[in-house]
Amino acid sequence: MATSTESAITNAARPGAEPLLTIRNIAKSFGRNAVLRDISLQVAEGEFLTILGESGSGKTTLLRIIAGFENADSGEIWMGGERLDPLPPYRRRVNTVFQHYALFPHLTVEDNVGYGLRVAKRPKQEIASRVEQALAMVKMTDYARSKPAKISGGQQQRIALARALVNRPRLLLLDEPLSALDANLRRQMQVELKSLQREVGISFVFVTHDQEEAMVMSDRIALLRMGELEQVASPREIYSRPATAYTAQFIGHTNLLHAEVKDGIARCHSLSWRTGFRDGPALFSLRPENIRLAGATAAHDVIRFRAKVRHQAFHGATELLQIECADGLLLSIRTASRENRQGDLDLEFSASDAVPVRESPERN
Amino acid sequence: MFSRAYRAAITLPPLLWVAAFLLIPYALLFCYSFWSVSPEQAIVHSWNLDNYRELFRVNVYLQTLFRSMWIAARVTIFALLLGYPLAYFLSFHAGKRKDLLYQLVIIPLWVSYLVRAYAWKTILGSDGVLNTLLQYVHLTKHPLEFLLYSPFAVVLTLTHIYTPFTFLPIYASLEHIPRNLVEASHDLGASPFQTFWRVIFPLSIPGVLAGATFAFVLSLGDFLAPLLLGGPSGIMISNIVVSLFGAAYNWPLGAAISLCMLVLVIGLLFLSENLEKKWSFR
Predict the structure, then answer these.
(1) A177 — contact with chain B (CB < 8 Å)?
(2) Coil, strand or helix at A285
C-alpha cells in the first residue's frame, strides 16, 4: 500500500477545488481487530465521493467516525478550517442518511423533517416554510401528516434525505441508503440522488458495496479494502487505470495476466506485448471488452491470437465469452451479442490496454 | 388441518382450568355480593343490594379505599422515579456491566415477600437499625415512632417491593428503541437532553404505563405490608376484606368490596392498555 505522504497526494480532492473535509491518518480498532489503518482522504466542496468496499472493509466505520458516532484511535478530521473529531455529533455541521432511514416513528413526516430546525430553536414560520420546501424537493408534500410506518421504503428514503438536507449541512453522509430498495427503484433513486446533489451543491460522502452504484453516481471513488484505501480516483480512471489487482477485479470484470517482463516485452503463455514496465514478474489487467474480434488489417502494437470458445453467457446487448488459447490460457472477452459462437475466433488487443497492476498484499 | 378431536384435546384443559379457578370463583363472588348474613351467621340466599348500600353508607370503607388508592399512587410515583432512571442507566449507559446489574435488580424478586417486609420492620422499629443510628449520632434523643406502623412505612416497603415491577417493562421498552434513532437525533443537532425528551422518553411511554399499572394495581391490593408495618393508620382496603372473610364472617360484604375493587382494576387495565396502544408505533 502507498506510504502516507504518497496517499495524501493521490487522495487529494480534485485540483482547483477547495477541500471541504480533510481526513488525516485515521486509525480505528475494535479490540484486537484493526478496522481502519491510516486513512487519509479529502473531499472537495460540492463533490460526490463514494466510499466503496466489501462488507467488513471498514467503510461504515469511516462514515461513523466522520459523523461522530465513533471515535478514531488516532488521526484528525478537519472541515473548513475547524477540527471536527473532538466535537460530539450534535455539534458537527454534518448530517447523515441512515441505512434503515432511522425516521422517528412517533413523529409525522413533517415533524421528522422539521426535527433539526426545531432542536436548533428556529422561528416557527421559518421551520414551516423550510419543511415545506424540503418536502417539495423530494416530492412528498402529500404525505406531510403521515406517520413513517404508513409510507413505503422508497418514500421513507426520501423523507430521510429531506430531514438531513433541510438543515443545509456542509456535508451529507449517506450510509448505503439505497440497499433496502428493489432494483428498479434503486436505479431511479441513483439518478434522482445524483441530480439532487448537483442541485443543492452540497458535498456527499456515499457509502456502498455496490460498484455499479459507485460508478454511476460518483465524482470520485475511494475503494477501501480491509481498512486501507486501495485507490482513490474518478470512476473512469479507476476503471481504466486500476492501480492494483484487487481494484481491477472489484470494479468490473477483468483478466489478470501473470507475465514475465524482459527488455520491454511482457510474456504470458504464448502472448507477448510491449510494455514500459521494469524487468521481472509483473501482473497485468486486461478488460474483457478490450479483447476484440480481429479486423482485416493489424494496427501498430496490436497482439493477435486464436482461441476456442468454451462458454457463452448472454447479457443482453453484450455477451461474455470464456475462451481458451492453444496453450490452455483461459480468458474472458466481451463482445456484441450473436447467437451460437462456436469454434475458433481470431482475436486481438492493444498493448496499451494491458495495464500493469500491483499485487494486492495479504492482510491480517 | 387438525382433527376436531385433537383440537378439543388441546383446548379443553386450559378451558377447564380457567373455568375451575377463575370463572366459577368469580361467579360465586358475584353471587355472594348480593346475598346477606343472618344474625345467626348463616348465609341467606336472598338477592338484595344491602351490601353495596352498606359500602357507601359506612364511612370507613370508602375512606380506607381512598387511603389505599393514595398509598398506591405514592408507591407508583416513587417506583417510577426510582425505576425509570435505573432502567435508563442500564439500557443506555451500563456498557459491559449491563447483565450483572440487571441480575442485581432481579435477584430481590427471588427473596420472599415476607422476608423483605420483615427486613423493613427491623430497620424502622423503635429498637431498629435506623433509630439506633439516629440516636447514636445524637440526631434524636428518643426513637422516632412515626417510622414504623404508619402509612409511611407501608409506602416505603411497597415501593421497595414493587420498584422491580416498574423497572422491568420500562427497561424492556427502552431496550426496544432502535439505537440509530438516538444517533439520528444527535446527528440532527439535538443534545443528549433534547434527545431524551424528544425521542427516548416518548418511545418509552408504553413501558412507563405498564410499569405504573403494575405498581398501582399490585400495591392497591396489598394486605401484608399494611398488616405487618401499617399499624391502625396504615390499614388498607384488602385488610378489611381479609377480616370480613375471616374473623367478621361477613362473606357477602367482603365479596361486594372485592367486586368493586375488581371493577376498578379492570377499568384501570383497560385504560392503560388503550393508552399503551396509542403510544406504540410498531
Answers:
(1) no
(2) strand
